[in-house]
TrEMBL record, chains A, B:
Keywords: DNA-binding, Transcription, Transcription regulation. Residues 34-53 bind DNA. Residues 11-71 form the HTH tetR-type domain. PROSITE patterns: HTH_TETR_2. Gene3D superfamilies: Tetracycline Repressor, domain 2 (1.10.357.10). PANTHER family: HTH-TYPE TRANSCRIPTIONAL REGULATOR RUTR (PTHR30055), TETR-FAMILY REGULATORY PROTEIN (PTHR30055:SF220). This is TetR family transcriptional regulator.
DNA sequence: GGATCAATCTTGTCGCTGTCAAGATAAATT
DNA sequence: AATTTATCTTGACAGCGACAAGATTGATCC
């Protein structure tokens, strides 16, 4: 009975694989990512993941999808923690959440923005990514009082702000922003805010 | 004789492997990158690359090194093509070169900024990356009239400008800047210029 | 000029990997 | 209770990185 229960019908194998997959991704990066290592960590056979995710890309897509959800949650969390509900301050807070997520899950962050947009394949992934994008669009809409989809200038603001926070986050997790390494997180956040304000004109 | 000459002592196998490696990297990305595929493309045995590069990371490091050199060359090329030698216009031109390179070699660009800065291991790679960084620092120094290493405000400018152009390039090659897809390259360059000027205060 | 040596490339092997096919087990359905 | 379906295991295959051992070539030395 226990053996059967342990081996077969794990109960929530899909969720367990995603959790373990995230751990493996964080430890080895996407290049060292191994489907068999994920299966071994959960304690199932090497071929168990196939039934839930198809191939390796299927699991990575699921990880990216979950990543975008937590990504959005990180931005909203920083917004909620910001007492000033002004559109500008809220947008800056989103940027800090953007950076929070990139720092806490750099490998997942890189996976999410790895160049495979052309064919999202899974609708869930496309939807989760789109939701993150819309969060930024909404923030700019509140700041400008116009929808970026109708006002080209506002869409330029979206791309400027996104480029700024994304570039900062990507360079930071690449260890390229050396001057910041020996400084406390408050300085890092302050610098991102100062820099982000430039993108808002 | 011909067989011997062909198989042994290729003459410039190292350069040939780098060239083929770049092609494989461009086609398959870093995840699908295979040392054996590179060897097969050149027409040597599967273990030939080991003598020149040690392991797979050795070849990737060499590719990244070569990438940083061409990266710097791309920025300088755009600067040379810019008739206005004003510090600001020259810095903007560098940004266009930055984007040129990312678009022409997205996989290589990603490899160069993949998070392995902590231990460059190969001095050549560290030197090539540093040279690119210094190019940006020099550009800002000319713009501000002060060395960013002495003036913290100027170093903030460096990080702001770098974040902006890097984020724009990274999002662009990820296919995330949808609104630009159906527009001509001139519009893309114009937008990057407009956005980069924000980073210069 | 011939022998020795070092550099270069090949072949063979090992364990690990993704993917597929076939089989076993448990839950759901009828 | 029997059958179907979903879930997981086992086994196999080719491709991979890495290592060891051997083969070939060019260079060095006397």
């Amino acid at each position: 009975m226990p053996k059967s229960k342990d081996n077969y019908h794990h109960g929530d194998l899909r969720a367990a694989l995603i959790k373990a997959g995230e751990a493996v991704l964080a430890e080895t990066g996407v290049t060292g990512f191994s489907l068999r290592a994920v299966a071994k960590r959960v304690g199932v056979s090497h071929s168990a993941p196939a039934h839930h995710f198809g191939d390796a890309k299927g699991l990575l897509d699921a990880l990216a999808t979950e990543g975008f959800r937590r990504f959005l949650a990180a931005m909203e969390a920083r917004q909620a923690a910001e007492p000033d509900k002004d559109a500008r301050q809220q947008l800056l807070a989103s940027g800090l959440g953007y950076l929070d997520f990139a720092i806490s899950s750099p490998a997942l962050f890189r996976l999410m923005f790895s160049t495979d947009k052309p064919e999202p394949k899974t609708l869930e992934l496309a939807a989760a990514a789109e939701a993150s994008f819309m969060h930024l669009v909404d923030g700019v809409a509140r700041l400008r009082g116009t929808s970026p989809f109708e006002a080209p200038a506002a869409m330029n603001d979206v791309m400027a702000i996104w480029s700024m926070v994304h570039g900062f986050a990507d360079l930071y997790i690449a260890g390229r922003l050396g001057p910041l390494d020996c400084k406390p997180p408050e300085d890092r956040d302050a610098l991102l805010k100062e820099i982000l304000e430039r993108a808002m004109v």
